[in-house]
Amino acid sequence: MAIAVEQNGGSGTSRGVMTVDAELSVPTATIQVVRFDIAQPGENFIRRDIYWLDLAVTPRPNARACFRDHWAPHRFEPLGRVFMTPPDEVLRVKGDSGSQVSILCLLQRDMFQRWLGQDMEWTDRRLEAALSVPSEAVQNLMLRLGQEARSPGFASQAYSEAMAVQIAIELNRYYLSLDKDCASGGLAGWRLRMIDERLREVRSPPTLTELATLCGLSIRQLTRGFRASRECSIGDYIARTRIDNAKRLLASGESVKSIAYSMGFGSPSGFCYAFRRATGHTPRQYRMQLAASSGTLPH
Q: Is residue 197 a part of any domain in this protein?
């Protein structure tokens, strides 16, 4: 099923297409595996009366977003692998042209009220955190829901409903924990953004000393604060981001050799080993999977 997407580009309004490749509905959520095909760089808007949760299966095309009714028009923050738009909030998204595959989990709006007893208060800190949800539990559950949507198995409805409820609980825990971060020494949002911006640069990964200097902290303050904010070590986060950068470059068609050296690996074989250890696939196998999903031949 293909759905037209309105997009405001630099030379006027263009149209993109969101194709729903698979869909599964349960009482608390609708799960979709979708492909976005955007004709040209520009912006579009997301506004729904449910919680829109988006997991990028393939790299996002340089996407950044702004909560239109809360932030200044020039304030755009990068979208993480998983982002969420709360009900009735307007998310303004900018990005490059291209194709991208996502798993969507569209949660009913009462999924937060049933445990909190009231609507979630969407403070600036929570809105900012919604654009990059670091929870591995949420990512894994969404990947399994995507598989279930494509190939339903035994007791699929009950199984998928249980996972959707678990995602809602994990999200509740994540957003409520943000309030504790300030008391427990979590990093300020601007420091996390500076770290993310440095990690998006295609060059050798930063050292802890470099990041600590960038944030104006000691290495100990950096590592403890980062773990409190992102629920993982900064070393693991750097490694995952490095692989995400590699996936984006592989999708762009760059050669394996060029990617290896631009990212600071000593050799193409060293890059291939690290990529396969992290993903279970060689760079060539990953590129072939991307080509198969888009219907094009690999480079």
A: yes
Task: Supply the Cα-derived Rg of the chain in whole angstroms.
Answer: 19
What gap in Å lies between CA 2 and CA 275, rounded to an integer?
33
Q: Could you tell me which residues come within 8 angstroms of residue 189 by beta carbon, excluding any fewer than 6 positions away?
A: 125, 128, 129
Tokens describing residue 200: 């998006």
Mean pLDDT calculated for residue range 57-83 = 89
Same domain, 237 and 178: no
Asked if residue 249 and residue 173 are part of one domain, the reply reads no
Query: Which pLDDT band holds residue 167 (cuts at 50, 70, 90)?
Result: very high
Per DSSP, 191 falls in state: H
CA distances from 184 to 125, 128, 188 (A): 15, 19, 12
Full residue range of the structural domain in which residue 239 is found? 189-294
Mean pLDDT, residues 112-116 = 71
pLDDT for res 298: 47
CATH no. for residue 176? 2.60.120.10
